[in-house]
Design goal:
Mean pLDDT: 81
Distance between the termini: 61 Å
Radius of gyration: 30 Å
Low-confidence stretches: 1-7, 445-456, 540-599
Strand content: 5-15%
Strand order of the largest sheet: 3-4-2-5-6-1-7
Number of helices: 26
Shape: elongated
Bound molecules: adenosine-5'-diphosphate, magnesium ion
Helix content: 40-55%
Largest sheet: 7 strands, parallel
């Protein structure tokens, strides 16, 4: 197997060592961006801009050729890769390490928020590939602990995100310290004007590789997620089934019990379904699979294990009734639909408690996911009526000679409309009975959180302390987004955001404070809490600082504006006065680059 598939990586001009690493890593075929970029980078000398959606393997697209072209015996920093966050720096460094195979090339992530000492030591020894966040790289440059004047490659990874985070000036400062004759690579999921401008300034004879989304298999499976309550899952499932043009599907469940329950409930509601799980005998299992293959049933409720290795083609839908445990399981599950030229649809149910896990999985899998809009009863009934009409029309076209006598007989004594209605009722029974659809309790989808906060009455607020600040490249917007992404609270619930040099504050409704703290409880340095309740005296009042203020007017100290839209719209209220004071004070006390004193 690997012979043939490896071939496609082989055709790109990679060395045997790299092909070995790829085999070990389990990469069988290059992604499109890799297929385009690798030869370009291996052979040519041009700068390259690579654009492809998230999750398409951009890292390996630049990392493999960079690894190939570095001089292992030269201990200087030969490649600098800038990433927007430290998580990404670590991830990219890990990916490169796993791709380098047995080559002795040193790769290290260099990012803010950790001690300098360790980084000094490693930099001194020589790091051939430095993967870093712009802020910390800038720091090292100014300290003279990093030399980037002998680069073979400078790479801006996730360039759009870096610009979004306000790193443009840092990036420009960093690039201006690099040698002219390096190759500049820029990778990004999107290509806003600001990036093209940056490219014009810093890149020369640039080749642009743009991979359009939705190629091959991806376009065939539409992926949806659906935020709902556990108790509404069956109702939503039946609405999906009833509104679908055609439905031939596997419903993935977590346990055997759940499989049986879903199978039973669907059968009770008149669907042709069966449960497939590990407790069945081989004989039972084969019978059920045969029924499915013969389209005697159209729904299988199955566990991951039971569904393994079954070859049922042309599934129209895959429903993740329970959230898969990770991205790999997800990909495996949805890979059963949208095959061989047939369109498919994958819908993943997500309960409020699973929101965070889902967001994580979503980040790790290929392709876009859209929110599934649960159809209303009237909409489904309308669709059903249309389908019934279409079925009758198509029956009209077939010869129904056997019924000639009865038809004549009936038409003699009854009017046609009443007859048609009676026949439809006979055939379709209660299909159009509206009461079969139960109410689904509204769930404020994207903003799901433990308690809904209504704005009608004044809310008690809790002030939270966030152990990150401007030095970690935090902005008000970034802080708000971090909490919104992680906890699903609303924008307007985050108030009075203050971002200081090394920490920040935010007011949140007291009803969700505990939830937010909990969500970030191990996200800080060394697994410590990132967010805690602020002490009462912290950041609540404007800090009176007349002496300092008179020396340095606040306007001058305003941090340079990053993407300010939110600050204009939001009632964050508090301005930069206190933080100006604090920044200023700190600079006075410790000087710009001296380390913070431990108290
Ligand atoms: P991007 O930067 O485009 O968002 P990444 O480089 O982070 O994507 O890759 C996403 C995931 O896909 C990673 O887990 C990576 O190891 C994996 N991956 C990359 N290329 C391949 C490949 N050719 N075959 C299989 N998996 C791959
Ligand atoms: Mg990437």
């Amino acid at each position: 197997m690997s012979e043939l598939l490896q071939g496609s990586f082989k055709n790109l001009g990679l060395s045997d060592a790299t092909l070995k690493a790829l085999e070990k890593k389990g990469f069988q075929e290059p992604t499109e961006i890799q297929r385009e970029c690798i030869p370009l980078l291996l052979a040519g000398e041009s700068d390259v801009i690579g654009q492809a959606q998230t999750g398409t393997g951009k890292t390996a697209a630049f990392a493999l050729p960079v690894l190939e072209r570095l001089d292992a015996d030269d201990n200087t920093t030969q490649a600098l890769i800038l990433t927007p966050t430290r998580e990404l720096a670590v991830q990219v460094a890990d990916e490169i390490n796993s791709l380098k195979w047995s080559r002795s090339i040193s790769v290290e992530p260099i990012y803010g928020g950790t001690s300098y000492e360790n980084q000094f030591r490693k930099l001194k020894k020589g790091i051939q590939i430095v993967v870093g966040t712009p802020g910390r790289i800038q720091d090292h440059l100014e300290r003279g602990t990093l030399d980037i004047s002998h680069l073979k490659f400078a790479v801006l990874d996730e360039a759009d995100e870096m610009l979004d985070m306000g790193f443009i000036e840092d990036i420009e400062a960093i690039l201006s310290r690099t040698n002219e004759d390096k190759r500049m690579l820029l990778f990004s999921a999107t290509m806003p004007d600001a990036i093209l401008k940056l490219a014009q300034t810093f890149m020369k004879n640039t080749e642009i590789v743009k991979i359009n989304r939705n190629k091959d298999d991806e376009v065939l499976t539409k992926q949806y997620y659906c935020f709902l309550r556990e108790s509404d899952k069956i109702e939503v499932l039946t609405r999906i089934i009833d509104s679908a043009e055609a439905f031939y599907a596997i419903i993935f469940c977590k346990t055997k019990l759940q499989c049986e329950e879903i199978g039973r409930k669907l059968m009770e509601r008149g669907y042709e379904a069966e449960a497939l799980h590990g407790d069945l005998s081989q004989k039972q299992r084969e019978l059920i699979l045969q029924k499915m293959k013969d389209h005697k049933i159209n729904i299988l409720a199955a566990t991951d294990v039971a569904a393994r290795g079954i070859d049922i083609n042309e599934l129209t839908h895959v429903i993740n009734f329970t959230l898969p445990s990770d991205g790999e399981v997800y990909t495996h599950r949805i890979g059963r639909t949208g095959r061989a030229g047939h369109k498919g649809c994958a819908i993943t149910f997500v309960t409020p408690a699973e929101r965070r896990k889902f967001l994580f999985i979503r980040r790790t899998v290929k392709g876009d996911m859209e929110e599934y809009r649960i159809p209303g009863a009237d909409e489904i009934l309308k669709a059903k009526k249309d389908r019934i009409a279409a079925q009758v029309i198509s029956a009209l076209e077939k010869d129904s000679g056997d019924y000639d006598d009865i038809a004549g007989m009936l038409l003699e004594k009854n009017d046609a409309a009443s007859l048609v209605k009676a026949l439809l009722k006979l055939h379709y029974r209660n299909d159009l009975d509206r009461s079969q659809y139960h109410t689904i309790r509204a769930l404020d989808a994207k903003r799901e959180k433990p308690k809904t906060v209504r704005r009608t009455e004044p809310q008690p607020f809790t002030r939270l302390f966030f152990a990150k600040g401007r030095k970690d490249k935090f902005t008000k917007r970034y802080l708000a987004n971090t909490i919104i992404e992680e906890c699903g609270v609303r924008d307007e619930d985050l108030q009075d955001i203050q971002v200081m040099e090394s920490f920040s504050f935010v007011n949140v409704p007291s009803s969700v404070a505990g939830y937010i703290i909990d969500a970030f409880k191990d996200k800080g340095e060394d697994g410590k809490a990132l967010i805690v309740r602020a002490r009462p005296e912290e950041g609540r009042k404007k800090t009176p600082a007349p002496a300092v203020k008179s020396k340095r007017p606040a306007a001058k100290m305003k941090p340079r504006s990053r993407r300010g839209w939110q600050d204009e719209v939001q009632p964050y209220g508090r301005d930069t006065y206190d933080e100006d004071f604090i920044v200023h004070k700190k600079k006075k006390e410790h000087g710009k680059y001296s380390k913070k004193k431990k108290k």
